[in-house]
């Protein structure tokens, strides 16, 4: 969508075409325009998720499952479906695609043979972390460069941003 196609009246009185363009096209943003930076950060996060999904050859839902398995460990299909908030039938399809691509294994639970346990394969974990690690290291370097006051201010600010997202999903 070109910026000229946007209808400012749909966004209320706070709409700013310059901010909208800057956050999307990478041009310089006004020095103290925090809102544009939050928007750009959200867009960068979305772009990184698409990049990562492309690099490890999974769809968005597959990436969500892989993220869960890599950050929290193995899980049952039902637990994954509840965690990601999709039906168990939809989860079965996602798991079939991931298993066919070699990203996960499904094994019987060691103490309850009726249950399945899903785990990310070592090769897929290495592949994903190979792409995620530069981002993690970059963010760690940013945090390490901050003094205690900057960390406190950034933490308080980000807590408020997180709360705004939570409030918007009520």
What features would you describe in this structure?
The protein has helices at residues 17-25, 34-55, 60-72, 77-84, 88-100, 122-144, 148-168; strands at 104-108, 116-120. With 170 residues, the protein is mainly alpha-helical. The chain has a domain at 1-55. Strands 1-2 form a two-stranded antiparallel ribbon. Strand 1 and strand 2 form a beta hairpin. It is elongated, with a radius of gyration of 20 Å.
In short:
By secondary structure, the chain is mainly alpha-helical.
Give the SSE order as H and E letters: HHHHHEEHH
Structural class: mainly alpha
How many beta-strand runs?
2
Unreliably modeled segments? none
Approximate helicity band = 55-70%
> What is the topology, as strand order, of the major beta sheet?
1-2
Mean pLDDT across the residues is: 88
Overall shape: it is: elongated
Number of helices: 7
Taking the sheet with the most strands, its summary is:
2 strands, antiparallel
Task: Report the C-alpha radius of gyration, rounded.
Answer: 20 Å
| Percentage beta strand | 5-15%
Terminal CA distance reads 29 Å
List keywords for this structure.
170 residues, mainly alpha, 64% helix, 7 helices, two-stranded antiparallel ribbon
List the helices and strands and how they pair.
Blueprint: H1 17-25, H2 34-55, H3 60-72, H4 77-84, H5 88-100, E1 104-108, E2 116-120, H6 122-144, H7 148-168
Antiparallel strand pairs: 1-2
Organism: Cryobacterium arcticum
Pfam family, one: MarR
Domain HTH marR-type: 7-163
């Amino acid at each position: 969508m070109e910026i000229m196609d946007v209808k400012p009246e749909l966004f209320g009185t706070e709409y700013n075409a310059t901010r909208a363009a800057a956050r999307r096209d990478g041009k310089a943003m006004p020095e103290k325009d925090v809102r544009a930076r939050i928007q750009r950060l959200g867009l960068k996060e979305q772009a990184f998720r698409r990049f990562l999904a492309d690099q490890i050859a999974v769809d968005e839902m597959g990436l969500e499952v892989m993220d869960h398995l890599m950050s929290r460990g193995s899980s049952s299909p039902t637990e994954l479906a509840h965690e990601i908030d999709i039906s168990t039938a939809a989860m079965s399809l996602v798991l079939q695609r991931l298993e066919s691509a070699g990203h996960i294994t499904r094994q019987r639970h060691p103490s309850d043979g009726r249950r399945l346990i899903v785990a990310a394969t070592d090769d897929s974990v290495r592949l994903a972390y190979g792409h995620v690690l530069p981002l993690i290291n970059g963010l760690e370097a940013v945090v390490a460069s901050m003094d205690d006051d900057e960390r406190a201010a950034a933490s308080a600010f980000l807590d408020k941003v997180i709360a705004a997202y939570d409030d918007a999903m009520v």
